[in-house]
């Protein structure tokens, strides 16, 4: 089978700046508070009443020339055969060289084992349950834990390693869009195969578009179409 | 390098490892409904091993067609929130107040029901059943049992909904032009121009998932104008932002109508024309009614003569703070797009002290451009959704109950100063926020037994201090709640109830959208971690059994005798069966293929449970045209004979004139002007010299009706509300005002109004109009859980609840609470 070359488009004109992508990313990838593989930048410019707002969802750019891969001493950051920049948790030594190298700030480090809240035995009030009781009832480390993330990556990472967006490689592998893309209420996002001439990503890229910090030569694979504000 | 990695050798929870290595879906999507706002979207919940793990829009629902907004996902953190009430509790400290520890202890469901029954029997023995009250917060279509019929059988007229603090003023505008009391639907897919009056439909109500899904295309095709004192997402993504002085929207609306008429831009196939084709709408000049021949409408010339002839954009500019040029531009663009031009009302612009008339002007604009009930316009009715309702309780209302039902209502709706004219009836709306005043003044009496569900009235009503005192004064209150809320602090019995999205099976008649109406079904997706019972069905059943033991069996008899499973004919024998039978009974017409209806064909109950929704067919436009508007004249009314009749009834009831009603409701208009859409100047509480700034509040994209603040996903992304900060609650000041006050970004400030004060962080923000302090609603919980509240014992909130400082005032004609339009002035002090 021909190799794929995945890339994402985000249509900022369609985007409503709701953080639905950021929330559903946490949901799919079991990330802990404070670690967000998908986040956003906001820019407000001008003075009242001539104000402008620009919102951009931000995530790993899966760069073709990825600084994190070059920086990683143990090949924990690697390029897969379909063009994804992936992280191998088993190889990671938590040296954070990738975080230093990444110009986009989208790699996070686990200072603690995540989701320890659910092991707590104290109830907030005499009316309430303990987190542990709810965890036990659910029978999962987080009650709404997504075990499907386990494919090709730890479903929950652990203290001492980094983590980042995998473009939902587990979903792409079964011909589904990343979860953020599927759940975006404004249908602003899409992941397609640049190697496939029939993929609709080529239509989308006819809009004016740009990648972030392209001048650094990282060759980012997340393309922002049009503008958030008119 | 950081700490050594600590990968667990064996994960106790990795029972699915083998399956996941195969990378297959491990769960199934179960239909349900999100009630995080009143769009009430059909959703599906992804269930793995009995756990709710994900949410998406239900693809079977034509109003949201597979989409759901960010709020729907946050429900996952709510349903598994350990801070929830986990079992029935009772108060052991008889003293009530903010400073009193309730000293709750666990009790059984049986003890809870026995105690409630005892209190009700006491009322019956003393012939004061009217002092019983049911308070309704968020609800499903099964509310007809607990909220509708249970109080009747007990014998009380006091079933009090939260609806008046929701959106009644907006409904007033459409009702008194085209006689529809409800939420409108909008044909965004065909519109060429939209004016959003305080509307933010890609963030909050209405129909967010549908609007969001077509927004990119809509903004290509249509010109969008957003009237909002603060810079919302919709404002940011519109062609025109009109940052109006709060509460002065009506001036702009009248001026738009003025431009449309003077420039001859009204939609003539709808409105009609001068008999000789000559436009006589000239600024300042009266027009002879005989010169104009109307088609679908009534009273255009009266509206002009009474209101519009002087309302130029230059006049409006002085009041609204919006430049005349912009008003001309929007008016012309809007009218040139006719009839595919939408004037989109929202509570933000009409839930003001005199906002009923503002909503009416906004509605009338849809008449001027012929978009009312027209393609690319506004649908103010729709195809009806069949349901069975609930059996008539009349045979179970005994003499004691009948006597109680005759007593005056607690809520003051229908009094001279509160016409609350829903459906043309004086007192047609149950007014929520006056109940606190009524209890405190014992006018007409104090309530003695209250059953309250999914409410938090001392948080969600303006003037929270009054509610704290009123709740302390009510001898016996049962709070059926998901989280321990502010209201719970005053409860005698606390009952844990389901999170509606995941833990109950109930019908929900969601708001219309995308030209469809529907009847959705919530399903019990998970077994709750908590000892819950369904508030609207199971708890009434258990209460009925407890009352029967004490010699009053009418309630349980009603349930046993009148409810039958539509498939088997079986009567319910316990609470769980009653719950299921009630839902099947109510929804029977939509899933029984033998019922004729204008919509989906569904083959039976099991199929309905699986699909989770029944949709009407797509609405065909112009059903109200040609005499079917339902108004007094049968026309779309610019001069509202319908309102005139309703006001006359109300005035007659009190033996006063309509002018007296206008005075009592703080409206400035006198005479015939009361029957046309017109400008009323904003009325504010507080003296300008003492409170120099105007306080305005707005909604959050993440609020699930102020119930989501105890989730980390809410706090982590709170800064997507423009100008807001993550994990915080800020007062947004224009930098010019801040400089004058010596306030810097991040300073703690005290917001002081005549009603109260809160302390929050100051945010300097160009999206706030100078002279205005803008703040989002939703934070400021001193209860609810460990994230929403910073310290439960000391009752320290994260942020400040706007309702502490907002005055408890009303848009009296509609009976709506008036929380918007800068109804309160504020002083900002550096702490």
Describe this structure in words.
- The complex is a heterodimer of chains A (230) and B (831).
- Chain A is α+β, with helices and mostly antiparallel strands and 230 residues long.
- Chain A has a single domain, classed as Alpha-Beta Plaits (2-Layer Sandwich).
- Chain A has 7 helices and 10 strands.
- Chain A has a 4-stranded mixed sheet. Chain A has a two-stranded antiparallel sheet with strand order 2-3. Chain A has a two-stranded antiparallel sheet with strand order 4-5.
- In chain A, strand 4 and strand 5 form a beta hairpin.
- Chain A is globular, with a radius of gyration of 19 Å.
- Chain B is α/β, with parallel strands linked by helices and 831 residues long.
- Helix content of chain B is 29%, strand content 16%.
- In chain B, the strands form 10 sheets. Chain B has a 7-stranded mixed sheet, covered by helices on one side. A 6-stranded mixed β-barrel of chain B has the order 24-28-25-27-26-33.
- The radius of gyration of chain B is 27 Å and the shape is globular.
- About 1% of the residues of chain B have low confidence.
- Classes of the chains: A alpha+beta (230), B alpha/beta (831).
- At the A-B interface, helix 1, strand 2, strand 3, helix 4 and helix 6 of A face helix 1, strand 3, helix 2, helix 6 and helix 25 of B.
Quick take:
The complex is a heterodimer of chains A (230) and B (831). Chain A has helices at 20-29, 67-71, 97-101, 131-138, 169-172, 179-183, 201-204; strands at residues 6-11, 39-45, 52-58, 77-79, 85-87, 108-109, 162-163, 189-193, 209-210, 222-225.
